[in-house]
Amino acid sequence: MICPDHGVIWRKDPAIIINAYAKWSSQKPEKKAVVVYDTMWHSTETMAEAIVHGIVDEGVIARPIHIRSSHRSEIMTEVLDAAAVIVGSPTLNNQLFPTVSDFLTYMKGLKPKNKIGAAFGSYGWSGESVKLINQELEAMKFDIIDPGIKIQYVPDQDGKDSCFEFGRKIGKAIKTVS
């Protein structure tokens, strides 16, 4: 029987829970990507969609997650077993979009390991979001496989194609993870 200080008492076959904890604590990634983003005017969302399509084109599972449509804990459930975490943000006042900054702070506290990281974002004038996301991912010891992609204003077809190829690059990198 497993009796934690708080939570569910596990009376049947404790090996199920023990094995689950052993798997979770090993942080061995599955061959999947999580594309976590927020958007102001749908430009970053358009980029996320193209990146996801590129990852999937490489035969890798990709899960797009819009931050304001999901709870942080639900996002982290997906992140913890993903091989790659790709984070997207528009630049707002030379900074990250507040919800993206909040998510990165939350993720940093949970210390995910064995992750490929990449950044993308849209901007109007200055475009710092990609650099700032990369700094956060590097601080978490993610393996940054590309400097990232940023697009000014609304992605045109060339921009979408670049995002698709960025996704393919990520998909190829995931396939090499052991």
Which residue ranges are poorly predicted, with pLDDT under 50 across at least 5 consecutive positions? none
Task: Tell me, rounded to a whole number, the average pLDDT.
Answer: 95
How many distinct beta strands? 8
Number of domains: 1
Under CATH, the homologous superfamily reads Flavodoxin domain
- Biggest beta-sheet profile: 6 strands, parallel
Q: What is the assembly state of the chains in this entry?
A: single chain
Q: Which class best fits the helix and strand makeup? A: alpha/beta
* Second CATH tier, the architecture: 3-Layer(aba) Sandwich
Strand content: 15-25%
CATH classification class = Alpha Beta
The outline comes out as globular
- What is the chain-wise order of helices and strands? HEHEHEEEHEHEEH
CATH topology call: Rossmann fold
Distance between the termini: 35 Å
Task: Present the secondary structure layout.
Blueprint: H1 14-26, E1 30-37, H2 43-57, E2 61-66, H3 72-80, E3 82-88, E4 91-92, E5 95-96, H4 98-110, E6 116-123, H5 129-139, E7 143-144, E8 149-152, H6 157-175
Helix pairs in contact: 2-6, 4-5
Quick description:
The chain is α/β, with parallel strands linked by helices and 178 residues long.
Would you write up a description of this structure?
Helix content is 45%, strand content 22%. It has 178 residues and is of the alpha/beta class. The chain has one domain: Rossmann fold (3-Layer(aba) Sandwich), CATH 3.40.50. Strands 1, 2, 3, 6, 7 and 8 form a six-stranded parallel β-sheet that branches. It has a two-stranded antiparallel ribbon with strand order 4-5. Strand 6 (116-123), helix 5 and strand 7 form a beta-alpha-beta unit. It is globular and about 60 Å long. The model has no long low-confidence stretch (mean pLDDT 95).
